[in-house]
Amino acid sequence: MKAIQINGKTIAEALRARVARDVALLQTECNVTPGLAVVLVGEDPASSVYVKMKARQAHAVGFRSQQFLLPSNVYEADLLGLIDELNADDSIDGLLVQLPLPGHIDLWRVLEAINPAKDVDGFHPYNVGRLAAGRPALVPCTPLGIVHLIKTVVSDLNGQDVVVIGRSNIVGKPLALLLGDAGCTVTGAQLQTRNLPDLCRKSDIVVAAAGCAGLVRGDWLKPGAIVIDVGINRALDSTGTAKIVGDVAFAEASKRASYITPVPGGVGPMTVAYLLANTVNAAVSRRGLSLAMDREARHVGPSCLREQSLEVDLQRAT
Ligand code: GUN
Questions:
Q1: Domain count, the chain
Q2: pLDDT confidence of residue 279
């Protein structure tokens, strides 16, 4: 078997186009332009790249987009002061602080300072709790992107056995909740899980989000499994050149899986696309506009977050 690659780049592009259409509708019908503020503390190279990408894509779909770059030695009180200002600024609908933060700053004090209605990362305990309770919430972007990718290749998630490797607040925990709500039987695993290879072999869908390069081997997979690789790890190839690799041994896994996401170009682009979708959602919900926008389609919420006829873009793994 040769797995088919799930092309996150083009699927994310289609989602961004829907977001752009929603933004145009919000502007013409409601005179609202969604605003996204992204705060970066310090100069971590990877974080700087992500923040620039978020700002660029926000601008491209028609948002008002602002970046706040603070020095790595900023006082926590000053960061909290900036968050208070952005919370109070009515032109800002979505607000995120790029992680990780320098060690002298208390992560939870920062996350809990963000107005939950503007928490487009979905990291505030208010939104975490609402997601866990099955209530409408702002939901973390990477898990939303992963569910979207899975739905492009599985028509019915009911009864699917899924293993999620990794229990982070950003990916593993919220993803397990979303997939459970969708009818999957989800096992939350981690590096210490006993018999991890056997657990994977019993699973229809394997999501690797442990931050461990090449962890999931080809012979860990049930033939025909769906493999979602969330890892972004720096590694050296055989010539000593640095490259980005996932948590899955891609070449081996491609021989057993039916569908697989590449790294890069799989899950990564979906995260930013859902940040944009969440920002439209926040702009709409904060103003109680959802029904007005969706009157014709009789749907609640912006079209970019609706149950979709998902555009599939697949290509044979080479
Ligand atoms: N760092 C790694 N992923 C994320 C994310 O999704 N949001 C934020 N704010 N920081 C991150």
A1: 2
A2: 97
- 133 in any annotated domain: no
Beta bridge partners, 239, equal none
Give the residue, by CA position, lying nearest to ligand 1 atom 8. Answer: 98
For ligand 1, whether the C-beta of 96 sits within 6 Å is yes
Nearest atom (ligand 1) to Cα of 99: 10
Active site residue 98: yes
Residue 2 lies in a domain: no
Mutate to test the pocket of ligand 1, among 96, 270, 276 (most ligand atoms within 8 A of CB): 96
Q: What is the 3-state secondary structure (H, E, C) of 13-71?
A: HHHHHHHHHHHHHHHHHHCCCCEEEEEEECCCHHHHHHHHHHHHHHHHCCCEEEEEEEC
pTM to 2 decimal places? 0.92
Average the pLDDT over each of 147-151, 266-270, 276-280, 292-296 and give the range with the smallest value: 292-296
CATH number, domain containing residue 217: 3.40.50.720
Q: Any idea what the CATH number is for the domain that residue 57 is in?
A: 3.40.50.10860
Q: For a ligand 1 pocket test, name from 121, 127, 171 the mutation site with the most ligand atoms within 8 angstroms of its C-beta.
A: 121
